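Continuing the batch. This is chain 6 of the set; chains 1 through 5 are on the previous pages. Same settings as before, nothing changed between runs. Recording input and output for traceability.
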Amino acid sequence: MSDRWLVVGLGNPGPQYAGNRHNVGQMVLDELARRTGATFKTHRSRAAVAEGRLGTLPGGAPGPRVVLAKPSTYMNSSGGPVAGLAQYFDVPAERVVVVHDEVDIPFGDIKLKASGGEGGHNGLRDITKALGTREYVRVRAGVGRPPGRMDTADFVLKDFSGAEKKELPFLLDDAADAVEVVIVDGLLAAQGKFHGRA
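Output for chain 6:
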């Protein structure tokens, strides 16, 4: 068993989806890759992958080794790439971190959990099925509820509003920080830091 972590950012492939709320997980992965200085390369597990070290351990040593991954499948078929990468890099489910959009959390807030249900998120449902367990970490980036009677599926497949785009860098930074804290200090420490801020 390796000591690596696998961090996955969910989204849909192609430039037409790149700025959608549904792709916020992949935007966070771009920020994490920037922090590690790693570059994404195509991997046979139907994903773009970057490898590096994330965060700093007490005493100043570089943080744990991470595999950053952006599945190249559509969101609802994320499970195959995630399970394939976990197997390829020998990462147990409890060291898999999935970053995704969450409509049940106000825009800009971050929540974290391990295990539990998928809350109607088809990408998570597919990952749970492929891994055969719910025991993986989720970093949930709040995108807020759709306005009025707009369908949730339509809402998440739209780009962030002009006002949200001004705040988006802070959301991406916070979500990337949350991933770092999970990996360096553990889930409870990350929950303590981010859940009290809403």
